[in-house]
Write a structure and sequence with these properties.
The protein is α/β, with parallel strands linked by helices and about 240 residues long. The termini are far apart. The strands form three sheets. It has a five-stranded parallel beta sheet, with helices on both faces. Strands 6-7-8-9 form a four-stranded antiparallel beta sheet, covered by helices on one side. The chain has a three-stranded antiparallel beta sheet with strand order 10-12-11. It is elongated. This is Response regulator transcription factor. GO terms for molecular function: phosphorelay response regulator activity; transcription cis-regulatory region binding.
Length: about 240
Amino acid sequence: MARVLVVEDDQFVRSALIRHLADASHTVRSVGTALEALREVAHFSFDVVILDLGLPDLDGSEALKMLRGITDVPVIIATARDDETEIVRLLNDGADDYLTKPFSVEHLSARMAAVLRRARTAVGEAPPSTVIRVGGLAIDPLRREAELDGARLDLTRREFDLLAFLAGRPGVVVPRKELLAEVWQQSYGDDQTIDVHLSWLRRKLGETAARPRYLHTLRGVGVKLEPPRAEQPMTGSPGAEPPL
């Protein structure tokens, strides 16, 4: 069964979708605004997003572009708009499918099954990949999976890309400009974008900027990823200064 995010501000439609999806044994989370949707996909992993366009804080077409900036999760647009030009534009902007309201639950189920089938087939067709290992981290770039000490990490698209890029260069300080170019595909940008994603990634790795284990920031230079340093045992008599 799938993990589904419903983004719908109409409470009646939202409740009906949640009830139907839950009855079909899917795990459902729901929000009513675009900003809430962005927060959800930044912190949780979903198999599919059902996105309404008429949201109160931001038009769904803009929300779609922002979602595509942080995740490659399949998105099904569900809206009353039926203009063909707009449908084509949304599909070109990254939507995986489009449903015009009103639609039946059977129609939604069929579209979801098709989208999920395509996504899973694409993963299944990927060739075997070389797993990158740095300390307790194991990162599979093709399957887009990462583990820390054997436990699966629930990462967003950008978090995974950032982690994989740094892990492929263990111990190397990577300039922020290079991170923007390689991970975000931007020639320029705000350093805060990198800082926010580093903060989210550190949280999932069980560390902080003040007490780093894997991710180390060199102020004014860049970022590097390296295995945690083993703690050095104390030697000498009690009360003595530790050796240099």
